[in-house]
């Protein structure tokens, strides 16, 4: 959809693009300054698991934000959270191993699992239960072949988060299945609208820490998607295996990006709160328009920067096509394992976002196929 929107624009049509999954802010100024200074020096290869300064900054951040204490040997750095996840799957999956993925899911998980020889097992999670995996659904999905369960909160595309009790319920199931590992993708942890601290399964179930891989990075929180820095925090043996894969595919992520990531983690953090407030204003502005439509049922997301309305009727692909023709690009829910929904990113200027939402509401009123 993003590509088609770009093609329409290149042909001179006005299209509002609400497909993109990245912040529209510049990186913090002190991060850019650190990168500029570093780039003027000779920069060679780094250890495959990242420069020691970055691994230390990652574990200090974990201690500050989650109160969890880890060693440098339990941290590995890759080219974004995406590569860390891919490396972890490649390092651990045997052909036919199953990975439980709650749906709606980030579109990359199932493909990554398949590329690594595994079998994605998607578990639909209803909007009524906040798009989160219940202990019962997890217990039903586990088999002898289950290797991982993926938890992503706040979720892309749903924005859903898990409460302490919800995570405790999942942990209880996991205690009965000692060979199942947990991939906790926390890349949106800093973009949340509710009160209170973020809760990770690693805090709720410290007894499972050997089986949990926490994944995070600078992409979303610090608006540094293109810098390609993410990390995994897990048991030293797992981390060693992830690093072994990293060594033989791209050696390391860019040295200058690693230095910039240290500056991001160690610099002032007020920007994160300010940006959350901006996202919240945008979210509320979009909701105020979308919730007027009788064709959409739009849940208020707890985090991340997406709205994921359910279409009360109609096919998500056909509707996304019609919206694109009308001048607003969205992503059909089927891309995230949830047909009948649309994903809209609100990581965009509020006036443009409002215009896009008005196009959506007006178009849904007028789609001829709608009444079929
Ligand atoms: C849920 C989720 N995890 C991971 C990533 C990838 O992050 P990175 O840029 O650090 O590779 C994304 C990016 O869209 C995402 O939505």
Walk me through what this model shows.
By secondary structure, this protein is α/β, with parallel strands linked by helices. The protein folds into two domains: about 1-25 and about 270-365, Aspartate Aminotransferase, domain 1, CATH 3.90.1150; about 45-265, Type I PLP-dependent aspartate aminotransferase-like (Major domain) (Aspartate Aminotransferase, domain 2), CATH 3.40.640. It is built from 13 helices and 14 strands. It has helices spanning about 1-10, 30-40, 50-65, 80-90, 110-115, 135-140, 165-175, 200-205, 235-250, 255-265, 270-290, 315-325, 350-365; strands spanning about 15, 75-80, 100-105, 120-125, 145-150, 180-185, 210-215, 230-235, 295, 305, 310, 330, 330, 340-345. A seven-stranded mixed beta sheet has the order 2-8-7-6-5-3-4, sandwiched between helices. A three-stranded antiparallel beta sheet has the order 10-14-13. Strand 6, helix 8 and strand 7 (about 210-215) form a beta-alpha-beta unit. It is globular. Pyridoxal-5'-phosphate binds near residues 21, 80, 106, 217 and 219.
């Amino acid at each position: 959809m993003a590509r088609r929107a770009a093609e329409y624009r290149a042909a001179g049509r006005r299209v509002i693009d609400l497909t993109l999954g990245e912040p529209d802010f510049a990186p913090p100024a002190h991060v850019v300054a650190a990168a500029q200074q570093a780039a003027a020096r000779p920069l060679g290869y780094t250890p495959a698991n990242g420069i020691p300064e970055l691994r230390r900054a990652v574990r200090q951040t974990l201690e500050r934000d989650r109160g969890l204490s880890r060693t440098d040997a339990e941290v590995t750095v890759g080219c974004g959270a995406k590569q860390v996840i891919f490396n972890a799957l490649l390092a651990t999956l045997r052909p036919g191993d199953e990975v439980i993925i709650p749906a709606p899911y980030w579109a990359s998980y199932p493909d990554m699992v398949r590329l690594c020889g595994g079998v994605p097992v998607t578990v639909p999670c209803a909007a009524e239960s906040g798009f989160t995996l219940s202990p019962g659904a997890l217990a039903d999905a586990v088999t002898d072949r289950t290797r991982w369960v993926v938890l992503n909160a706040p979720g892309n595309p749903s924005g859903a988060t898990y409460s302490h009790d919800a995570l405790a319920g999942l942990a209880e199931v996991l205690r009965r299945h000692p060979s199942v590992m947990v991939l906790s993708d926390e890349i949106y942890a800093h973009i949340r609208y509710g009160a209170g601290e973020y809760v990770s399964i690693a805090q709720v179930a410290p007894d499972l820490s050997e089986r949990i891989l926490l994944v995070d990075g600078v992409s979303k929180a610090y608006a540094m998607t293109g810098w390609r820095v993410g990390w995994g925090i897990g048991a030293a043996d797992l981390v060693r295996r992830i690093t072994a894969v990293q060594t033989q595919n791209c050696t390391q992520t860019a040295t200058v990006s690693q230095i910039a990531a240290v500056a991001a983690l160690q610099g002032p953090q007020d920007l994160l709160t300010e940006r959350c407030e901006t996202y919240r204003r945008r979210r509320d502005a979009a909701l105020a328009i979308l919730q007027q439509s009788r064709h959409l049922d739009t849940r208020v997301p707890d985090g991340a920067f997406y709205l994921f309305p359910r279409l009360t009727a109609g096919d998500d692909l056909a509707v996304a096509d019609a919206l694109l023709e009308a001048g607003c690009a969205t992503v059909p829910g089927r891309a995230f394992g949830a047909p009948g929904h649309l994903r809209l990113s609100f990581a965009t200027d509020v006036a443009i976002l409002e215009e896009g939402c008005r196009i959506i509401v007006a178009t849904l009123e007028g789609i001829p196929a709608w009444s079929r």
